[in-house]
Design a protein that fits this description.
The structure is a single chain. This protein is an alpha+beta fold. Among the domains are: 158 residues, f41 fragment of flagellin, N-terminal domain (Up-down Bundle), CATH 1.20.1330.10; 96 residues, no CATH class. Helices cover 53% and strands 16% of the residues. Helix 2 runs antiparallel to helix 3. The longest helix has 55 residues.
Length: 370
């Protein structure tokens, strides 16, 4: 029996410290609701959870983007509906002016209202805006700058580009004379598409569906010419409006819809007059065409609304799944933690009692001295 080193007390103290630490951890988890409160709790799990949280934040913003895009489309739809109503009234006035039942004096009065309605269409186009963006004058979206890029040593040049919803970027196009392919790559190098031009003799139009870009060149490619690269720049302009719906910056994650142009010139009614019967007859045909153009615009808006709704629904499902994945890693299982807390409380109390007992063991040596 030794009194200088109380091994039982040392062991009891170590176990008491262990149970106290476990109790503190249980209290922290129950009070915060998190299983991981610091890196030491689960370093690998914390890294994964933080990565998932970043994705979640992107998806949350993507969901808000979709909601704002729907709001934008509703504003555009409201303006287009007003323009359609005005066109219907203009059709009525044109039909009235084309009738032999009115004289020149009557046509002067009809023309006055017709002119005011033209001005009102212009006003609606100019004032239909969302967050400072004019929606109905065709100025919203992206355009492509071909810049006559030379693509091979034979002088093949890009003469025309057409795109629908291509993301703003500088794209590099490479011509491989040996493999007889064209490859288009975005500036980040995260997305590329290669098309085979082996059987394209005499054809100078190429479609890169992965980017929604089509190009036309000044001539077809010469398979015997050395490879050269050219750049295609997509910058701000007037082709389409883009909405990010996935929160993933590495890919084509945007929903695009065509920009609407309902100006008088585009509708073809800027020069119409009802001053004579012949002019009124001409105006009737032009207004019918304009009404058709507005109806096409409604179709564009409706299609975009439907697609954005589906995209938003898909984003919401993905968001829910990522949140569930993060919760499994980061959040505490409250039922399990309550059980763990109870166990650690009992262990702490038992450890305290055993340490007290161990501290009394050296006193038994006094009995040997009596």
């Amino acid at each position: 029996m030794r009194i200088n080193t109380n091994v039982s007390a040392i062991n009891s103290q170590r176990m008491l410290n262990k149970s106290t630490s476990a109790l503190s951890r249980s209290v922290a988890r129950l009070s915060s609701g998190f299983r991981i409160n610091r890196a030491a709790d689960d370093a690998a799990g914390l890294g994964i959870a933080n990565s998932l949280r970043g994705t979640i934040r992107g998806l949350e913003q993507a969901s808000r983007n979709a909601e704002q895009a729907n709001s934008l489309l509703q504003v555009a739809e409201g303006g287009a509906m007003q323009i359609e109503a005005i066109l219907e009234r203009m059709k009525q006035l044109s039909t009235q002016s084309a009738s032999d039942n009115v004289n020149d004096t009557d046509r002067t009065l009809i023309q006055a209202e017709f002119t005011e309605l033209q001005s009102e269409i212009t006003r609606i186009v100019d004032t239909t805006k969302f967050l400072g963006n004019t929606l109905l004058n065709g100025s919203l979206g992206n355009s492509v700058d071909a810049a006559n890029s030379t693509l091979d040593d034979a002088g093949t040049e890009v003469t025309s580009l057409v795109h629908s919803g291509a993301l703003a970027d500088t794209y590099t196009m490479a011509h491989d004379a040996v493999a007889e392919t064209l490859t288009l790559t975005n500036s980040a190098g995260t997305l590329s598409q290669t098309i085979d031009i082996t059987s394209d003799a005499g054809i100078n139009s190429y479609n890169f569906t992965a980017f929604n870009i089509s190009i036309e060149t000044s001539s077809d490619f010469d398979s015997g010419v050395d490879t050269a690269d050219g750049d295609i720049v997509v910058a701000g302009g007037n082709t389409s409006f883009l909405v990010s719906v996935s929160g993933d910056p590495a890919g084509q994650d945007a929903v695009a819809f065509g920009s609407l142009d309902l100006t008088l010139g585009t509708l073809g009614i800027d020069g119409d007059s009802l001053a004579t019967k012949a002019q009124a007859v001409t105006a009737i045909g032009n207004i019918d065409t304009a009404i058709g153009a507005v109806s096409t615009g409604f179709g564009t808006i409706g299609a975009a609304q439907n697609r954005i709704e589906f995209a938003a629904a898909n984003t919401d499902v993905a968001l829910e799944n990522f949140q569930a994945a993060e919760s499994v890693i980061r959040d505490a299982d409250m039922a399990a933690e309550v059980s763990e807390l109870t166990k650690n409380q009992i262990l702490q109390q038992a450890g305290t009692a055993m340490l007290a007992q161990a501290n009394t063991l050296p006193q038994t040596v006094l009995a040997l001295l009596q």
